Amino acid sequence: MKYESEALKVVHQDAKNMYKVGVITKEKMREYDELCLKNPKTEKKSHPVSVNDDSVDIKTINQATA
Fewer beta carbons within 10 angstroms: which end of the chain, N or C? Predict the structure, then answer.
């Protein structure tokens, strides 16, 4: 996979781990794909996740990556 940046590589890997344990949905994972990957291969195009996206709770991320 090719990432937009090293920082987005880390974000995507964390999102992938959260998806694997059920913290985020497939649809949300696709949003991370759109944001982080240079050439995402997703069936459904969606808007990328923004830094101000309230649907991503930082406490949940910290718990999932701890």
Answer: C
